[in-house]
Design brief:
heterodimer, A: alpha+beta, 12-stranded mixed beta sheet, 6-stranded mixed beta barrel, 52% helix, globular, B: 4 helices, 3 strands, elongated
Chain lengths: 890, 113
């Protein structure tokens, strides 16, 4: 084995050793012959003669050393050059193959890329020592709340961590000289977080332990972009007093642009110890820690598991099932299970899909390479006749496929790299920016995986057709000058391609159509373009004591009421709808029960979308109750538990029966008691999210301004809604300075929740459809090209005998068109079924098309592509000169 | 010089192993040593020796290293590996049994039947 390895790795050395040994032998023999009396010349001559034919012995020696087998699969630069020449010689085919693998390979590496990216260390975490400590709820597969008590308990008891810090994020109104306030994301955090992440301020200092003491002066550290945007990068900002929420705080430092912990926060306040939330409940915080020297994450996990949860925390029974975990920060932030993406079934599914797509791409590229190689039978046959072994020819075809796959991988990785740089992924994910620690740049690991996938692709797409072609076909070609034909497998592949293309195109059209529902200006009968949607939140101030916090809640409730009243009184504003969600927005989903219904205790809970709305909500949105009555001020003020449901709720939850006297409740936990709400009215669909304008059951509950947080206000104006925004801000600053103003958008520009999912699916499908259509087209094209080259002689004879050109073309195209037809027919029902199961229900009322229209479009699109793919080879057929064709041996 | 004999196929290897077992030797030396120990009866075709040596080396029966030969040239020297030594022992015993059996068979008389 060692000899063989050496032969592979040091081939040239081994060759020269054989040569040297032979020469030594001949010289020794010649010296003996000289000693026996021969002249040096004659001795040398005779020694060579006695040794025999050097080349023959060398060949035998190489065979003995196992080099000859290697020779046959030896790769050379010539192979690479030949492969590059083949790329240029068949540009269309190369383009199709590179496109297919250029999509397939990046799609193949994408899941691992993402999984690794979310587990990357936080910037400044040298040696990957910082971990998040969290509570995992196995029952719901979600991250549970960790309290300050937990933090204090673990900080005092865990030895595995040298430092620990807690933090919680919020939005703060940051005041300025012109009294305008803007909402800025910020974090209250333990000062230890700064040294833990080696975060050095650009100006001034970071927070320190004394800042967190209750009696310490109120201070703030600013983020770089906040310092730039609000303070004009003024270095004298240090020491200045700035209003943050309700408090004046002194700026003590400015962090560099690269620090936005924990995601994209722009200001940092000290987290007070013994932090409690409103009402005295334990305040939720998130926790990070740096592993002590010499301690691994696994050892820390063992200690944490042994230590358990804080005994002082509330509800010890409910929390007993929670599992404390030491995980990379990204897993805490994204709420992923301990194993990361890889432990999710969905991830495995996506990974499987991506591999299937790569394999489909490989299979099609194999077909293209097969077609390309099939046109070179004469070359293969001549090389075989000249002594080239089968392994040698296979290795050459493999190199050709490898070059193709490498080019494709390069193109694909470059495209992904470019895309990640230039596409606003945060916007696609519905965020203003991606977390600062999430780097999606291409890594060395990605490149390695891409190369590996390229090699696998080349093996599948190159070696398989090469083995088939160099089998009996070459010998057959030598005997009877007949090439290979595309078999049933390749025919089936084309049919499958077409079928999948039709299904995917149909589905993509339906999805695209669906996403336009939310894009239209009228949504569920509401002229969305005439509404300004503004979000308001109560400030979150951890420094307040319980009493102060209660005061704050009361005061902001009063401010909310004042704000709504001022807006209603404003000229030019014809309606103000106040609720926890407006139409087009994602409504909260909760489990519900209807009274008088016998349901098995083990039955899975039913879910419904809910929103809390103020009196006049429906009216402001130009909707009126269709049965029963609207909410009245008495419902809100008296605390009567009433509810208004939509028609879908009546149809599904009440089975279309009369709602009078029926009640609904929302148990937080299965079997738990909850208050009943009496249904007093029914409204038409208002939409429960962007893509469900006209379906989805909903329950609306009455709530006064002040009790909804965060609160959305939909302002109906006769003027352009965006022109009203400054006035709304002005009013807020006057009557509700404590409120935090969030998003301000015209209602038809609000994009939330499922819409992103649908757009993501649509983009993914568009790529998939593109790949499939190109593959199917190139497959048909390759098949036709071969078909023409194989039958050139036959065509010549037919033309010479007087056959019409159109009948010759038809004869050649018949098979391909039949495959396209079969594919389209097979694909249609699959597509229709998929569309029906997923989005079909809403397509019926869609403004653009119905299922059958989408399917018809898909089929005609694929047929058109098929016909175009047939046209170029058909034109080649007509260009064949009869006399030349008959001379050819094809 | 003794009359030359033809080696049976496969017997060259055991003769080479024997030659090398007598001490470290280069390729040409193996040839001379075989001639010497067989009293000139076994003459190996010179060029054919090397494929056999490489095969034995690949099988791990002999080992090689580069050194300097009598004529001050770089030469490759062969020694027997422990596996080769064991194999040589087995081959030798097997040959002795075969030779004894054939000798016995050939010396048989009609009376012994």
């Amino acid at each position: 084995m060692r000899t063989l390895v050496r032969a592979v790795l040091h081939r040239d050395d081994v060759e020269s050793e054989i040569h040297e040994e032979f020469e030594h032998h001949i010289a020794m023999r010649a010296a003996d012959l000289v000693r026996s009396g021969l002249s040096e010349d004659r001795a040398a001559h005779q020694a060579r003669r006695e040794f025999g034919h050097v080349d023959t012995h060398r060949a035998e020696a190489r065979l003995s050393r196992g080099l000859q087998t290697l020779d046959q699969v030896r790769f050379s630069w010539l192979d690479v050059k030949l492969a590059l020449r083949m790329l240029v010689k068949h540009p269309l085919l190369s383009l199709a193959a590179v496109f297919a693998l250029g999509v397939g390979i990046p799609v193949g590496i994408a899941p691992a890329h993402l999984a690794n990216a979310v587990e990357a260390p936080l910037p400044g975490d040298k040696g990957r020592r910082v971990r998040a400590i969290r509570l995992w709820n196995p029952a719901t597969s979600s991250v549970d709340v960790t309290s300050y008590e937990d933090f204090a308990f673990w900080k005092a008891t865990l030895q595995s961590f040298s430092m620990m810090a807690a933090f919680r994020t919020s939005s703060y109104n940051v005041g300025s000289e012109d009294r305008s306030a803007a909402s800025v994301p910020g974090t209250e955090l333990s000062p230890a977080a700064f040294p833990m992440l080696h975060a050095i301020p650009q100006l001034g200092r970071a927070l320190n332990a004394t800042d967190a003491e209750p009696t310490a002066p109120a201070v703030v550290v600013l983020g770089h972009s906040l310092w730039e945007s609000r303070f004009g990068s003024d270095p004298s900002v240090l020491g200045r007093s700035v209003r943050i929420g309700r408090e004046m705080r002194t700026v003590v430092g400015v962090m560099p642009a690269g620090f936005r912990f924990p995601a994209n926060e722009q200001l940092w306040l000290p987290l007070p110890s013994q932090s409690t939330a409103a009402g005295g409940a334990l305040s939720p915080v998130r926790i990070i820690g740096r592993l002590a020297d010499g301690i691994s994450a696994e050892q820390a996990q063992v200690e944490l598991s042994a230590r358990g949860l804080s005994p002082a925390a509330d509800e010890p029974k409910a929390r007993a099932r929670l599992r404390p975990e030491v995980v990379p920060f990204g897993l805490l932030y994204l709420g992923l299970p301990r194993g990361g993406f890889e432990s999710l079934l969905e991830y495995r599914f996506v990974q499987l899909l991506s591999i299937v797509l790569l394999l489909v791409a490989c299979a099609n590229v194999a077909m293209l390479i097969f077609a390309r190689t099939a046109t070179r039978f004469r070359e293969m046959a001549v090389r075989t006749a000249l002594g080239a072994s089968r392994a040698r020819i296979i290795s050459q075809i493999f190199v050709e496929a490898l070059v193709l796959a490498m080019v494709a991988a390069g193109v694909g990785v470059f495209a992904i790299g470019w895309g990640l740089q230039h596409v606003n992924l945060a916007a696609i994910a519905g965020q203003t920016a991606l977390p600062y620690w999430l780097s999606l740049d291409i890594t060395a690991g990605d490149l390695t995986r891409a190369l590996l996938f390229a090699a696998i692709s080349a093996t599948v797409a190159g070696v398989v057709p090469a083995i088939r072609i160099t089998g009996k076909a070459v010998h057959q070609h030598m005997r009877e000058t007949s090439g290979v034909r595309f078999g049933r497998v390749t025919g089936a592949l084309i049919v499958a391609d077409i079928a999948i293309s039709v299904a995917a195109i149909g589905f993509a059209l339906a999805i695209a159509d669906r996403s336009t529902v939310g894009e239209s200006d009228r949504f569920a009968g509401i002229p969305a373009a005439e509404y300004l949607a503004v979000q308001f939140r109560m400030p979150d101030d951890g420094r307040a004591s319980d009493g102060a916090r209660r005061d704050l809640v009361e005061r902001t409730a009063a401010e909310q009421r004042a704000l709504v009243a001022s807006l209603r009184a404003e000229p030019g504003i014809s309606g103000v709808a106040v609720g926890s969600a407006l139409p087009r927005m994602e409504h909260r989903s909760v489990p519900f029960e209807v009274d008088g219904e016998d349901r098995s205790p083990d039955a899975p809970p039913q879910w419904v979308r809910t929103a809390q709305v103020d009196v006049g909500f429906f009216e402001a949105l130009a909707h009126h109750v269709v049965a029963g009555r609207d909410f009245t001020r008495t419902d809100v003020d008296s605390g009567r538990r009433t509810a208004i449901v939509n028609t879908a709720f009546v149809a599904h939850a009440l089975a279309g029966k009369d709602f009078t006297g029926r009640r609904v409740r929302f148990p937080a936990r299965k079997g738990a008691d909850a208050a009943w709400y009496e249904i007093v009215g029914v409204v038409e669909h208002l939409g429960v999210n962007m893509v469900n304008a006209d379906k989805g059951a909903a329950v609306y509950l009455p709530a006064a301004p002040g009790s909804i947080n965060p609160m959305w206000i939909g302002i109906h104006t006769s003027a352009a809604p965006s022109s009203v925004a400054p006035r709304v801000r002005e009013i807020m600053n006057t009557v509700a300075p404590d409120l935090v103003m969030g998003d301000v958008k015209v209602l038809n520009e609000v994009h939330q929740g499922d819409w992103y999912l649908i757009v993501g699916v649509a983009v993914g499908l568009a790529i998939l459809v593109g790949v499939l259509v190109v593959l199917a087209t190139s497959g048909i094209y390759a098949m036709l090209t071969l078909s023409v080259s194989e039958r050139t002689r036959e065509i010549g004879i037919r033309t010479a005998l007087g056959a019409q050109s159109h009948s010759v073309v038809l004869m050649i195209l018949k098979r391909s068109l039949m495959q396209v037809g079969i594919g389209a027919i097979l694909g249609l029902p699959i597509a229709a079924r998929v569309v029906h199961l997923t989005v079909g229900a809403t397509l019926g009322q869609s403004p653009l098309m119905s299922v059958s229209m989408a399917m018809g479009l898909a089929a005609s699109l694929v047929l058109t592509v098929g016909v175009i793919a047939c046209t170029i080879p058909a034109r080649r057929i007509l260009a064949v000169d009869a006399s030349e064709a008959m001379r050819s041996d094809g | 010089m003794a009359r030359q004999v033809d080696l049976l196929p496969g017997n060259l290897d055991v003769v080479i192993l024997k030659a090398i077992s007598l001490g470290e030797v280069h390729g040409y030396g193996v040839l001379l040593r075989i001639e010497q120990i067989s009293g000139g009866a076994i003459v190996v075709q010179q060029g054919a020796l090397y494929p056999a040596l490489y095969r034995l080396e690949r099988q791990g029966l002999i080992e090689s290293h580069w050194g300097t030969s009598d004529n001050n040239r770089r030469a490759k020297f062969y020694t027997l590996s422990s596996l080769g030594r064991r194999r040589y022992g087995e081959e030798k015993a097997s040959w002795s049994r075969l030779a004894a059996a054939i000798t016995l068979a050939l010396s048989a008389t009609p009376q012994e039947i």
